[in-house]
């Protein structure tokens, strides 16, 4: 366990930042270009997790546990979001037989 | 007795309340009795006041009642003033008022609105007494407007006839035009003298210079008020229309009392007017113009009441002419005598109309002398009095005015005498058309002809007696009289008299002047006799073409039509313009324009709401990036 | 227990009672409406007519932001309390003849509004004043929108947006003043003490003036009013014209001029001119109106214009005239709309052309209507005369030509009022008006109260003039000093 911590601390902070940025960007692009609601949903999770990773990394870097506690909150929130979000998607699918978000353009003027 | 002066207006007020509340429940005799007794009681109290005042050395009493309005420095008490002028006016109002009430019990006996009529009449007497008794301009103004209201109610008494209702409205509105002048004059009086009380104003005014600007404006505005109330040019057209009211109303309000309120007010404020000679000059001209205009209209009218109405306007013109030349006593003298003979003439006309089953057109009368002997005799006395033939009352008062006019301006005198000639002509024309010749009405009317009941003839007789002897209260020096009236009123006009040039006519000139006007009147009478009795002429039917002058006169110089096209119609179209264009399209259009603008703007903005989720997310990301960039480079 | 709190909250409690009253709401409303009147009567009896503020209530409300529940009564407020609590029972009584759907809600809204009005008339805290201002607006919106005529939604939306736009601008001014006070207070006394420069005061003047001018309404902010008066149910029209527009007038006297005296000094003439234009303009429009309610609405604009002119002339006569005329106008216009309502309800039309000759079948109504008309045209010995006399005198002391122009109301008022009276009451009856039935007991009692008030105030106005005299002269002094110092 000691070793793992040390090994982790050995990784430079820049690498974590870079990795999270890449994951976040993948998430953003996924949300922007995909039309399948489930994929968009997954992309959002990806962005959330990129943030989580960053929070953990800084937490270790600063030797401050509050960042990691915050991650737990985000995970709980994500779980709740999944519950509601997936339920919505299921309802959409039942009604339209599709999960394409571009069909859902009724909410306009 | 003077301290009980509040009883004088109180009795008619009580009469009004009793008759007003009991108009449907009380019997006609009770109503008539209440109405008459209320005024009679006032008359008796007035008589007591008059006697006491005559005996007393002090000639002016103020009787305060309560504080009416006070706001800041403005304090207006509700108080009464008794002096020779108001005491005499009280006697006229209550005395003639009583006679006319008595007459009305007979005249209105068949009318369904008997109770209403008497309550209105009593209310009128109440307001008229307030006008006369008020010790300041505001209380006078209450009465001033109050009599206007009663005039409105009584002209429109038979309100189901919509032309009568319109006549009532016209009278009220024309009076109101004058009232605005009066009201602004009151404000100006207050700012000039810091009070509206007569007793405070007049001594202060007496020390001002003649021709003071404030005084000229005040008096001009007061005169505007008098023009409206006393039916002078250009606001006289309501008075002939006011004949829509029952005849006793015409006699009481539109001949004897209310219409003379303007003269009373000016006589009351004589000192202000004396010190504003320019205004007096205007008054004289307006009076003269009115008297000539009305007299020339009266000569062609065929409605018996219209003749009397124009005659009233014309006689009021005489009074204003008198005021204008500073003959305050003379003008007030004429108010008194005119009240006698004009009330008499109207009541006589009422008696004729009553006998003729509500026929008013003289072309359908004629030969009534035999059937209505009392009416004929009394009316003849009234006619002689108004024509100014000695020794009847009108002679003295009219000649007193004319003598002053001669002194002032001889051209005015000539015109005044011409007016007197016209007066004599149209009055005798009316008499001859009505009472001489043969009957021209329907047979049904002829069967119905009868002399009026004694409740109507007694007032006629009393007024006839007064018309004969009324002039003796002011017999001028040249007939060896002491002119009691002048002496009695001298405390009221004393200050003015000191500032006016005195009458300096020698006796021979005065005799010549009288002789000329009497000769003119007699000539006109003979001419009328020739034309209508000897030749038996009857005025032409409406459809027959008249000569230019006759047409102008017959159509009252088209003054009503001119007013309609100059004032009424433009105002109506202005109203429509304001409502439809300025209000609806202009202002409201602007307001609605804001709403429309908001809708139009939202129409273009709402296109952003495309419904594409991807687009929303893109905009969100774009926004975040933009914020990031902004925060990095700006801060 | 503070009597003033009782005064303000009794209507609120009454509103709550209404909601649970169900079928008996109507008669209960009649009884409950007398309670605030009784409290006012008690307050009037114990009122000392000097310049001081009495029955003061000062409770912390949101102390962090300097908001206090501060209210009190001086002579100016007292008259408006009398007005409000006198008219509400009359208005409720006058509504008894109507079939009202969901009446418990209707009466609850009236009581709710009464509370807001009382708050406006007694508030001594800017925030509280604003709260009362809006509380009074919301119920009247619903009264008009739920029980009004055919175009009610459209017309009411305009009325609502119009007034709320004005009051939001006023809120800005109140907040601005709040921020300027040294201890961040909303207290009116602190507002009075501020010494802002005259251009700032000019802005504040306009911010307040817009709100008040729309409410009164003063030309050219009046176009919502004829439509709203026409479409609203009669009780709503009475509330609007009888009481609510006095909020604007009261606001001018209590807030606008004392808070921004220099703004008033610079812009008072403009406001005065607008008021006088309104008098003549609305009178002329009233000439040719054929809709009885619309005619009364325009006449109300003219009369309120005169009140406003009297205030902006800013002298003792004008202000005292405005005070008593607020009361008079309330009484007269409520009476006027009540008569109009009687006629409309029986004839089913508001068109003057279709009426006529009603005096014959309904003589009692004719008498009452005549008294109200006379009060409105300011005949002496009716209440209207006292007010208009003092108002015109006030305007006269400012400028004689303005007085002559404003005085045209004496003539023009007679023209359109008598025209209306003639068209409705006089002339011959047509086949519809012959069967007109005269007023019954409820109607008679309303009209009797109104007529008696008109005549009694006209004959003996001193008790009412006396209430506000000291307070007004104090206010006048205070503002004039500030202007003089400048």
From TrEMBL, chain A:
Q: Does the keyword NAD apply?
A: yes
What are the BP-aspect GO terms?
ATP synthesis coupled electron transport
Gene Ontology MF terms? NADH dehydrogenase (quinone) (non-electrogenic) activity; quinone binding
Q: Where are the transmembrane segments?
A: 15-33, 38-58, 70-93
According to UniProt, the reaction catalysed is:
a quinone + NADH + 5 H(+)(in) = a quinol + NAD(+) + 4 H(+)(out)
Q: What cellular-component terms does GO give this entry?
A: NADH dehydrogenase complex; plasma membrane
| InterPro entries for the chain | NADH_UbQ_OxRdtase_chain4L/K, NUOK/Mnh_C1-like
Keywords carried by this UniProt record: Cell membrane, Membrane, NAD, Quinone, Translocase, Transmembrane, Transmembrane helix, Transport
Q: Which Pfam families match?
A: Oxidored_q2
Principal location: membrane
Q: What is its EC number?
A: 7.1.1.-
Topology within the bilayer: Multi-pass membrane protein
The protein's location, in the record's own words, is: Cell membrane; Membrane
Known partners and oligomeric status: NDH-1 is composed of 14 different subunits. Subunits NuoA, H, J, K, L, M, N constitute the membrane sector of the complex.
Query: Entry's NCBIfam families?
Result: PRK05715.1-2, PRK05715.1-3, PRK05715.1-5
Family per similarity comment: Belongs to the complex I subunit 4L family.
Q: What does this protein do?
A: NDH-1 shuttles electrons from NADH, via FMN and iron-sulfur (Fe-S) centers, to quinones in the respiratory chain. The immediate electron acceptor for the enzyme in this species is believed to be a menaquinone. Couples the redox reaction to proton translocation (for every two electrons transferred, four hydrogen ions are translocated across the cytoplasmic membrane), and thus conserves the redox energy in a proton gradient. NDH-1 shuttles electrons from NADH, via FMN and iron-sulfur (Fe-S) centers, to quinones in the respiratory chain. The immediate electron acceptor for the enzyme in this species is believed to be ubiquinone. Couples the redox reaction to proton translocation (for every two electrons transferred, four hydrogen ions are translocated across the cytoplasmic membrane), and thus conserves the redox energy in a proton gradient.
Name this protein carries in UniProt? NADH-quinone oxidoreductase subunit K
The scientific name of the source species is Daejeonella lutea
Q: Corresponding gene? A: nuoK
From TrEMBL, chain B:
> What sequence ranges are listed for the domain NADH-Ubiquinone oxidoreductase (complex I) chain 5 N-terminal?
68-118
Q: Which InterPro entries match?
A: NADHpl_OxRdtase_5_subgr, ND/Mrp_TM, NU5C-like, Proton_antipo_N
Biological process terms from the Gene Ontology for this record are: ATP synthesis coupled electron transport; electron transport coupled proton transport
Which UniProt keywords are listed?
Membrane, Transmembrane, Transmembrane helix
Transmembrane regions listed in the UniProt entry: 6-22, 29-51, 85-105, 117-135, 141-159, 180-202, 214-237, 249-267, 279-300, 307-325, 331-353, 374-392, 412-435, 456-475, 511-529, 613-633
Identify the domain of life.
Bacteria
Where is this chain primarily localised? membrane
GO MF annotation: an example: NADH dehydrogenase (ubiquinone) activity
Renumbered to this chain, the signal peptide range is: none
Q: Write down any Gene Ontology CC term.
A: endomembrane system
Q: What membrane topology was assigned to this protein in its record?
A: Multi-pass membrane protein
Give the location in the cell. Endomembrane system; Membrane
What is the name listed in the Swiss-Prot or TrEMBL entry for this protein? NADH-quinone oxidoreductase subunit L
Domain (NADH:quinone oxidoreductase/Mrp antiporter transmembrane) ranges: 136-423
Give one Pfam family, short name only. Answer: Proton_antipo_N
Automatic annotation (TrEMBL), chain C:
Q: List all membrane-crossing ranges.
A: 6-22, 29-47, 67-93, 105-124, 130-147, 159-179, 203-224, 236-257, 269-288, 295-314, 326-344, 365-386, 398-418, 446-465
Q: Give the membrane topology.
A: Multi-pass membrane protein
Reading the lineage from the top rank, the first entry is: Bacteria
Any idea where this protein resides?
A: Endomembrane system; Membrane
Question: Which InterPro entries does the UniProt entry name for this protein?
Answer: NADH4_N (IPR000260), NADH_Q_OxRdtase_chainM/4 (IPR010227), NADH_UbQ_OxRdtase (IPR003918), ND/Mrp_TM (IPR001750)
Does the keyword NAD feature in the UniProt annotation?
Answer: yes
What does the record list as GO biological process? Answer: ATP synthesis coupled electron transport; electron transport coupled proton transport
Q: Which UniProt keywords apply?
A: Membrane, NAD, Translocase, Transmembrane, Transmembrane helix
Major subcellular site: membrane
Q: Is Secreted included in the keywords of this UniProt record?
A: no
Q: Which PANTHER family match?
A: NADH-UBIQUINONE OXIDOREDUCTASE CHAIN 4 (PTHR43507:SF1)
Its name, as the record gives it, is NADH-quinone oxidoreductase subunit M
Q: Which organism is it from?
A: Daejeonella lutea
């Amino acid at each position: 366990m000691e070793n793992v911590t040390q090994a982790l601390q050995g990784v430079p902070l820049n690498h974590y930042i870079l990795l999270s940025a890449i994951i976040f960007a993948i998430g953003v692009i996924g949300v922007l270009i995909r039309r399948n609601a489930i994929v968009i949903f997954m992309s959002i999770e990806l962005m959330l997790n990129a943030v989580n990773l960053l929070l953990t990394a800084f937490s270790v870097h600063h030797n401050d546990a509050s960042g990691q506690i915050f991650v737990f909150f985000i995970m709980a929130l994500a779980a709740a979001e999944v519950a509601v979000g997936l339920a919505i998607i299921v309802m959409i699918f039942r009604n339209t037989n599709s999960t394409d978000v571009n069909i859902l353009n009724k909410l306009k003027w | 007795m003077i301290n009980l002066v509040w009883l004088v207006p109180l009795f008619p007020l009580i009469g009004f309340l009793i008759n007003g509340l009991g108009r449907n429940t009380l019997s006609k005799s009770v109503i008539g009795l209440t109405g008459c007794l209320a005024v009679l009681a006032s008359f008796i109290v007035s008589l007591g006041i008059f006697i006491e005042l005559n005996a007393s050395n002090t000639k002016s009493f103020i009787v305060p009642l309560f504080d009416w309005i006070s706001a800041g420095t403005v304090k207006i008490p509700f108080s009464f003033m008794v002096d020779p002028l108001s005491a005499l006016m009280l006697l006229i109002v209550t005395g003639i008022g009583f006679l006319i009430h008595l007459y009305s019990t007979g005249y209105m006996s068949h009318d369904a609105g008997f109770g209403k009529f008497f309550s209105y009449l009593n209310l009128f007497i109440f307001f008229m007494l307030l006008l006369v008794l008020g010790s300041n301009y505001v209380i006078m103004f209450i009465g001033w407007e109050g009599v206007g209201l009663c005039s409105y109610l009584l002209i429109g008494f038979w309100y189901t006839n919509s032309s009568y209702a319109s006549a009532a409205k016209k009278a009220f509105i024309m009076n109101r035009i004058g009232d605005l002048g009066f009201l602004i004059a009151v404000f100006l009086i207050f700012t000039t003298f810091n009070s509206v009380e007569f007793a405070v104003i007049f001594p202060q005014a007496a020390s001002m210079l003649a021709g003071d600007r404030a005084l000229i404006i005040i008096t001009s505005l007061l005169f505007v008020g008098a023009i409206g109330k006393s039916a002078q040019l250009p606001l006289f057209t309501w008075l002939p229309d006011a004949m829509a009211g029952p005849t006793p109303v015409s006699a009481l309000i539109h001949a004897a009392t209310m219409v003379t309120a303007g003269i009373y007010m000016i006589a009351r404020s004589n000192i202000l007017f004396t010190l504003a000679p320019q205004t007096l000059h205007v008054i004289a001209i307006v009076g003269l113009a009115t008297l000539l205009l009305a007299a020339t209209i009266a000569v062609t009218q065929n409605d018996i009441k219209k003749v009397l109405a124009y005659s009233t306007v014309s006689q009021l013109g005489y009074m204003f002419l008198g005021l204008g030349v500073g003959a305050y006593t003379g003008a007030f003298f004429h108010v008194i005598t005119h009240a006698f003979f004009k009330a008499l003439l109207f009541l006589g006309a009422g008696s004729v109309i009553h006998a003729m089953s509500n026929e008013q057109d003289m072309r359908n009368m004629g030969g009534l002398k035999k059937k209505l002997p009392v009416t004929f005799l009394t009316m003849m006395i009234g006619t002689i009095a108004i024509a100014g033939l000695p020794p009847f009352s009108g002679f003295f008062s009219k000649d007193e005015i004319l003598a002053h006019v001669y002194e002032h301006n001889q051209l005015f005198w000539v015109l005044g005498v011409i007016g007197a000639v016209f007066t004599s002509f149209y009055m005798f024309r009316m008499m001859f058309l009505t009472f001489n010749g043969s009957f021209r009405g329907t047979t049904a009317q002829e069967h119905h002809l009868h002399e009026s009941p004694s409740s109507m003839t007694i007032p006629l007789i009393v007024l006839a007696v007064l018309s004969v002897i009324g002039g003796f209260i002011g017999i001028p020096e040249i007939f060896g009289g002491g002119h009691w009236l002048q002496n009695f009123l001298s405390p009221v006009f004393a200050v003015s008299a000191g500032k006016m040039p005195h009458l300096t006519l020698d006796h021979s000139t005065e005799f010549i002047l009288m002789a000329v006007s009497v000769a003119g009147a007699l000539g006109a009478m003979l001419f009328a006799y020739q034309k209508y009795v000897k030749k038996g002429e009857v005025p032409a039917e409406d459809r027959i073409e008249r000569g230019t002058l006759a047409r102008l006169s017959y159509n009252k110089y088209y003054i009503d039509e001119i007013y309609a096209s100059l004032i009424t119609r433009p105002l109506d179209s202005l109203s429509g313009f304001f409502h439809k264009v300025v209000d609806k399209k202009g202002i409201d259009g602007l307001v609605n324009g804001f709403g429309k603008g908001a809708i139009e703007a939202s129409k273009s903005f709402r296109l952003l709401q495309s419904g594409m989720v991807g687009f929303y997310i893109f905009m969100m990301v774009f926004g975040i990036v933009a914020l990031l960039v902004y925060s990095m480079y700006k801060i | 227990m503070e009597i003033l709190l009782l005064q303000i909250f009794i209507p609120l409690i009454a509103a709550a009672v209404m909601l649970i009253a169900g079928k008996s709401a109507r008669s209960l409303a009649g009884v409950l409406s007398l309670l605030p009147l009784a409290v006012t009567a008690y307050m009037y009896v114990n009122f000392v007519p000097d310049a001081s503020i009495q029955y003061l209530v000062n409770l912390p409300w949101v102390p962090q932001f300097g908001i206090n529940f501060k209210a009190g009564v001086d002579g100016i407020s007292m008259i408006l309390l009398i007005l409000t609590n006198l008219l509400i029972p009359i208005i409720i009584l006058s509504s008894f003849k109507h079939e009202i759907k969901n009446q418990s809600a209707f009466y609850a809204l009236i009581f709710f509004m009464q509370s807001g009005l009382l708050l406006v008339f007694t508030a001594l805290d800017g925030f509280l004043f604003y709260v009362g201002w809006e509380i009074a607006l919301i119920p009247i919106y619903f009264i008009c929108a739920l029980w009004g005529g055919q175009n009610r939604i459209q017309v009411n939306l305009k009325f609502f947006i119009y007034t709320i736009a004005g009051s939001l601008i006023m809120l800005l001014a109140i907040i601005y003043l709040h921020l300027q006070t040294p201890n961040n207070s909303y207290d009116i006394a602190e507002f009075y003490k501020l010494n802002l420069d005259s251009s700032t005061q000019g802005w504040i003047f306009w911010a307040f003036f817009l709100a008040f001018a729309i409410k009164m309404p003063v030309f050219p902010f009046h176009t919502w009013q004829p439509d709203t008066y026409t479409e609203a149910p009669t009780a709503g029209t009475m509330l609007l014209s009888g009481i609510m527009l006095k909020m604007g007038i009261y606001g001018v006297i209590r807030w606008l001029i004392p808070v921004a005296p220099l703004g008033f000094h610079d812009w008072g003439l403009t406001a005065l001119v607008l008021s006088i234009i309104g008098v003549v303009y609305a009178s002329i429009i009233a000439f040719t109106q054929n809709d009885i309610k619309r005619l009364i609405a325009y006449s109300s604009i003219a009369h309120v214009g005169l009140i406003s002119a009297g205030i902006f002339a800013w002298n003792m006569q004008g202000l005292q005239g405005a005070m008593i005329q607020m009361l008079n106008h309330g009484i007269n216009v409520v009476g006027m709309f009540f008569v109009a309502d009687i006629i409309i309800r029986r004839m089913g039309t508001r068109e003057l052309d279709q009426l006529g000759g009603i005096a014959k079948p309904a003589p009692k109504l004719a008498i009452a209507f005549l008294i109200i008309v006379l009060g409105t045209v300011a005949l002496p010995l009716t209440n209207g005369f006292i007010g208009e006399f003092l108002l015109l005198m006030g305007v006269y002391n400012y400028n004689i030509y303005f007085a002559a122009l404003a005085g045209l109301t004496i003539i023009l008022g007679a023209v359109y009022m008598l025209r209306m009276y003639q068209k409705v009451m006089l002339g011959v009856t047509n086949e519809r008006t012959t069967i007109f039935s005269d007023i019954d007991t409820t109607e008679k009692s309303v009209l009797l109260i109104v007529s008696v008030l008109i005549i009694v105030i006209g004959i003996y106005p001193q008790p009412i003039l006396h209430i506000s005299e000291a307070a007004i002269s104090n206010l006048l002094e205070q503002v004039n000093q500030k202007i003089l110092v400048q």
